[in-house]
Amino acid sequence: MDNYRRPVFETILKRILEKRRFMQALAGPRQVGKTTLARQAIEKCGLPSHYVSADEPTLQDRTWLNQQWDIARTKTISKNGDRPALLIIDEVQKIQGWSETVKKLWDEDTTKRTPLRVVILGSSPLLVQKGLAESLGGRFELIPITHWSYSEMKQCFGFTLEQYIYFGGYPGAATLVDEHDRWVNYIVDSLIETTISRDVLLMSRVDKPALLRRLFHLGCEYSGQIISYQKMIGQLQDAGNTTTLAHYLDLLNGAGLLVGLPKYAGQRVRQRGSSPKLLVLNTALMTALSNRSFAEVQSDRDYWGRLVESAIGAHLVNDGKSKQIEVFYWLDRNKEVDFIVRLGKSLTAIEVKSAAKAYTLPGMETFCKTFPVKRQLLVGGQGISLDEFLSTPIEHWLR
What's the distance, CA 196 to chain centroid? Predict the structure, then answer.
């Protein structure tokens, strides 16, 4: 794995080697390879570099950040005058008030023309983006680092399509797939629990942590299904309100775990108030909590179908994050379209089928009569093969 470079690596390296204009912010879930990408960039760029991480047992403070920045500045000094150097700060969101301090230090370097390139990494994307927006407007470029795609897992670990659909896109867990119990424990303990406790509960105000955890488990159980907030409240046996649940879904989405897709209505006000379609952002989250083996899931046609739909939905959401692509679902009475993908004013309607048999698509037909659709896609079954769709950047299907 250490020798494998994700496609996004070339973007990161190119921006580091450019003339200093913006700091680069790499934000994404835990265990998707942000630190590996940073270390690969250090090895390849050829610049004097300083790498530090704020992900320590004791929370770091602004003084520590100032000290690390000064160490990196010394690397720009040479006998022949100033030279470019690189500072990488990992888990930056763990530092209280980090964005104001980074702004001050970055602006000092700009004024003094110190040629220090800066890359910040964070595994709580919502928090990182909040800090960037509040203090660092115009000073950064955001590079989303998302879950690994089917192509990446196939190239790096030799995953088959079926393995990817079941085991998902966590590189750290890929070597454990032949030991099911060990794989489940890794996903639950090292990924789910660590992400919820350290990247959600520790970093955001959550008045009902038990409710957030139950909501996550509900989302994994019902991934690919549309559930009203009122029904969720009943299922979760909580007296909370729909606003709280919507907020917790946003936090889980920000941590790269679970998203609630809105209904496409053509009007943003109506979309916000719709019942969400729950969707895991990595199918490993769904299967690890299901108490079902790889073989058992493949023999259960209904569950496998939901897993396939979740894999396609996760691919759309993850791949679309850096491309200004929005993902919805559509429902009118009993007529549904699995996914509606919007790029600018262009709409693409997508139906997912896991079995190779003929289908009627009344939802697709009705949707296309109601809205100006550029493309109608059937994925799986007698349509585009799952292998091809998951191996192809989604903008290809939207042209």
Answer: 14
**pLDDT digits 0-9 by tens, 251-263:** 999 999 999 999 9
List, for residues 127-137, the tens digit of each pLDDT value: 777 777 888 88
For residue 113, give the amino acid letter. R
| Residue 358: strand, helix, or coil | coil
Burial 335-348 (b: 16+ CB within 10 A, else e): ebbbbbbbbeeebb
Say if residue 17 is exposed, middle or buried (CB neighbours under 10 Å; 0-12, 13-18, 19+). Answer: middle
Query: Is there a contact between 224 and 303 (Cβ–Cβ < 8 Å)?
Result: no
Spatial separation of the C-alpha atoms in residues 90 and 79, rounded to whole Å = 30
At the top level of CATH, which class does the domain 8-144 belong to? alpha beta
User: Based on C-alpha coordinates, what's the Rg of the chain?
Assistant: 22
Q: Please name which of 237, 204, 227 lies closest in space to residue 126, comparing C-alpha atoms.
A: 204
Pairing of strands 77-78, 81-82: antiparallel
Cα–Cα distance for residue pair 46/60, rounded to 1 Å: 29
Phi, psi of 374 (to 5 degrees): -80, -40
Domain ranges of the chain: 8-144, 150-398
Residue 148 confidence (pLDDT): 98
Contact between 386 and 161 (Cβ < 8 Å): yes
Residue 361 tokens read as: 């698509």
Q: Return d(Cα 246, Cα 137) in angstroms, integer.
A: 27
